[in-house]
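Input for the complex:
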Amino acid sequence: MFSNSTKYAIKAVLYLAVHSSEEQKIMIKDIAEPINVPKHYIAKILQALSKKDIISSTKGPKGGFYLTSDQLQTKVMQIIETVDGEERLNSCLLSLEKCNSDNPCSLHHLVFDEKNKINERLKMTILKDLRQHIMRGESILPL
Amino acid sequence: MFSNSTKYAIKAVLYLAVHSSEEQKIMIKDIAEPINVPKHYIAKILQALSKKDIISSTKGPKGGFYLTSDQLQTKVMQIIETVDGEERLNSCLLSLEKCNSDNPCSLHHLVFDEKNKINERLKMTILKDLRQHIMRGESILPL
DNA sequence: AGTAAAATATGATAAAAATCACATTTAAGA
DNA sequence: TCTTAAATGTGATTTTTATCATATTTTACT
Ligand code: FES
Ligand code: FES
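Predicted:
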């Protein structure tokens, strides 16, 4: 469903959501290891997210990555779109085109409503929500 | 959601479902072109499907690919599993593991029910159903 | 100012997925 | 039985995705 890069991105950002703050920055290697993602790979992804202002970073000693409280309001969908590009989630199951109810492919009616529901949730769920889930022990941040 | 190969496979099989029969076999090039898939690529996929008895074929002059009426009973899910492998649809959104409600990842609750519903439908929908849809003009076989 | 510790930029390599090419096998029809 | 038309098998090439490496920039601390 998601690319590898997006999976990694979500895991990393969620890790920051739980463990970081403006006073508690985290170095790349201390993110990569606990979420089980190659260090150099996640570095590239975090840099892209940082450039898009989805996460924050500072260079130099005592530097690292972190989330501001504003950034805890980021919607999950924003991360997905930033990494995978917008098209991916709205593409038709059978063609390259955008899914289109006026010209539905043969699988469209099997999936459209559910896919929509999922997309809606990804659009309204923010990092803070997921952090709360994790801190309550209702879900985990998998390896 | 699906790999390119699975998309192509479904389109090709659906094309056969609509246009072929034991008396009306279709050559690779006459499948590849209308569904807009590279000839050599779809050939490989069709060969795999043929070996798994999801479609039929005969060699030589007047040969080609076709579906028997038995094969019109094939479930969409069978095609997906044959091409992409079973794991893909049941894997967790964030990890390599199988999705597991007893140990849910942070996105699990956002998608589980809907993904399940989709999977159920893919498991109970057969090619004949989709063919009917297409022939009634309720859905299309996209390029 | 100088040094060291961090992210950043850029690019190289490896692995996987998609695509292309061709020689082999099978079967129909002359 | 010979020729030809089709799928089949095997493997090569290209493209995309994932991974690795390294030089540069920024910043804190001395
Ligand atoms: S048109 Fe294909 S999934 Fe909607
Ligand atoms: S455990 Fe991750 S999607 Fe179910």
